[in-house]
Design goal:
Blueprint (H helix, E strand, L loop, with lengths): L6 H9 L16 H10 L5 E6 L8 E5 L6 E5 L5 E5 L14 E3 L2 E3 L6 E3 L4 E3 L20 E5 L2 E5 L7 H4 L5 H5 L4 E10 L3 H10 L1 H5 L3 E5 L3 E5 L3 E9 L5 E9 L8 H16 L10 H13 L1 H9 L1
Antiparallel strand pairs: 1-10, 2-3, 2-5, 3-4, 6-7, 7-8, 9-10, 11-15, 12-13, 13-14, 14-15
Helix pairs in contact: 8-9
The structure holds FE2/S2 (inorganic) cluster.
Length: 310
């Protein structure tokens, strides 16, 4: 796993030979065009943890996910494999799934009733003869690249990201320990701050997460704290250029099943306070933007440079 403190080294190697970190434009913290570019150029091109495998317990269990504003649906197909698709009907693009979670053997688009199985294949449509020489197999749902590791489901919306195994250190025993944990609780809350500023606060709050377990950063926006019997994901998802949703997910081994997010609060509270402290809105004439840009340049150079390059 790429740890937080190795990111500056990555910045050096990916950003050129200079000893000085590249400077990031402060507008990266409040410009809507940068936010849109980050969605396309960063979040849509890498592996993102979207849920626990236990959240898909049965054949046909599904959940929808669109934190990067691209609607997707993740499903446990009838062969027990987990698959992901763009949640967009191949007829006219309407969502094929409209409820956040559920279970079914097929997805039926409510617009004109095209129906897909859990493999994404088009299996039914009304008045098929009216379409002439129609080939159903050319109209399957568009699949996402998907992977499982540490009990998490990961998606890559581009289909072109490097294999997850090369992004994460699968040899790290503590990350692998998450596989033994089961989904316990999820909380989300919104802060009024650009997501990158939130990440800075997460970095400053490492010690609070360390009270839960060993820290693992996962670019671009996720922090895992992993212990033998419990793990916590803290992720910063951009809602727009000025607001971020923090997602907190707790997973626990059976012997630690009584643990709850509330009981972790005394450990996590300093970190959450720290994050809440990032609620200061950043504007063009705010010195804080300059300071954050400098910090961001140092710690998260590759991500921010990518944003600058888009
Ligand atoms: S848009 Fe889905 S059936 Fe027409």
């Amino acid at each position: 796993m790429r740890e937080w403190n190795s990111l500056s080294a990555m910045a050096m190697s990916e950003g050129g030979a200079s000893d000085a970190p590249a400077r990031i434009d402060p507008s990266s913290y409040f410009e809507s065009s940068i936010y849109i570019a980050e969605l396309k150029g960063i979040f849509s091109k890498t592996w993102l943890p979207v849920g626990r495998v236990e959240e898909l317990p049965d054949l046909g269990s599904y959940f929808t996910w669109e934190r990067t504003r691209i609607p997707t649906v993740i499903v446990r197909s009838v062969d027990r494999q987990i698959r992901g698709f763009y949640n967009s009907c191949r007829h006219r693009g309407a969502p094929v799934v409209r409820t956040p979670t559920g279970r079914g053997r097929a997805f039926r688009c409510q617009y004109h009733s095209w129906t897909y199985d859990t493999f994404g294949k088009l299996v039914g449509l009304p008045d098929e003869r009216d379409f002439g020489n129609f080939s159903r197999c050319a109209y399957s749902l568009v699949p996402l690249q998907i992977a499982e590791f540490g009990g998490w489901v990961w998606i890559d919306q581009s289909g072109a990201a490097s294999p997850l195994a090369t992004v994460l250190d699968r040899g790290d025993a503590s990350m692998a320990a998450m596989e033994q944990h089961g989904f316990s609780a999820r909380k989300t809350f919104k802060v009024r701050s650009n997501w990158k500023a939130v990440i800075e606060r997460l970095g400053a709050g490492d010690s609070a997460m360390e009270a839960v377990g060993g820290i693992h950063w996962c670019l671009p926006n996720s922090l895992f704290a992993v212990a033998s019997t419990r793990s916590v994901l803290l992720a910063a998802w951009p809602l727009n250029e000025r607001e971020t949703e923090i997602e907190l997910v707790l997973a626990a081994a059976p012997e630690d099943a009584g643990i709850s997010l509330d009981s972790l609060h005394s450990d996590l509270l300093p970190l959450l306070d720290n994050i809440a402290g990032s609620g200061t809105e950043i504007s063009g004439d705010n010195q804080q933007a300059e300071q954050l840009a400098a910090l961001w340049s140092h710690h998260m150079g590759p991500v921010a440079q990518a944003a600058d390059a888009i």
